[in-house]
Write a structure and sequence with these properties.
heterodimer; A: mainly beta; B: mainly beta; 7-stranded mixed β-sheet; 11 strands; 0% helix; 48% strand; globular
Chain lengths: 115, 116
């Protein structure tokens, strides 16, 4: 069964500092991987996705993520955080060899940005 | 297109009552998903439709839960005899599936259910 672990429940960074949010997945082959962002009381917005090819993926809002097969990781990064980035971030994995398209989500990392 | 719409945004109900939520997906999307999210957790898959066919239901979805997508457009999720444990955010998402990889969902803003 596929699973996702986001080891950091809460991260605080200063505005302008760099950010890395960790995501580890469990799956028997190369999965489809996603990062979503959720603002309070809102649905989730897709930041970026990885299916195959280049292991460094660019997304919206200046985010990028790197797929590392050897570490079963898909960490999200941003070189300079803005106050508006404060939100909850979810990593998700989808199984490519099924037809369902459903995803398994991690429990999220809450990002606080200090001025 | 205004994205995925969910109605109502908030619902407070007494234990034992029935509730129904509605989701209007992006019009050209043929797949529609329901997820449930409780505080401090990520969304959990409940069920999904391709057009009007319900193709999978999670074991999380007890017999008190039923979902429909009668014409392959909007969907409803009904919970009968609500329990306090049903309190959660119910998220709807849609996607366009052509047999190619899942390109990720477009989520609605969710319906927050509180059972008192």
């Amino acid at each position: 069964a596929q699973s996702v672990t986001q080891p950091d429940i809460h991260i605080t960074v200063s505005e302008g500092a760099s950010l890395e949010l960790r995501c580890n997945y469990s799956y028997g082959a190369t999965p489809y991987l996603f990062w979503y962002v959720q603002s309070p009381g809102q649905g989730l917005q897709l930041l970026l996705k990885y299916f195959s090819g280049d292991t460094l993926v660019q997304g919206i809002k200046g985010f990028e993520a790197e797929f590392k097969r050897s570490q079963s990781s898909f960490n999200l990064r941003k070189p300079s955080v803005h106050w508006s980035d404060a939100a909850e971030y979810f990593c998700a994995v989808g199984a490519p060899n099924t037809n369902a398209g459903k995803s398994t989500f991690g429990d999220g990392t809450t990002l606080t940005v200090k001025p | 297109d205004t994205g995925v719409s969910q109605d109502p945004r908030h619902k407070i109900t007494k234990r034992g009552q029935n509730v129904t939520f509605r989701c209007d997906p992006i019009s050209e999307h043929n797949r529609l998903y329901w997820y449930r999210q409780t505080l401090g957790q990520g969304p959990e898959f409940l069920t999904y439709f391709q057009n009007e066919a319900q193709l999978e239901k999670s074991r999380l979805l007890s017999d008190r839960f039923s979902a429909e997508r009668p014409k392959g457009s909007f969907s409803t999720l009904e919970i009968q005899r609500t329990e306090q444990g049903d309190s959660a955010m119910y998220l709807c998402a849609s996607s366009f599936w052509t047999g190619n990889p899942n390109y990720g969902y477009t989520f609605g803003s969710g319906t927050r259910l509180t059972v008192v």
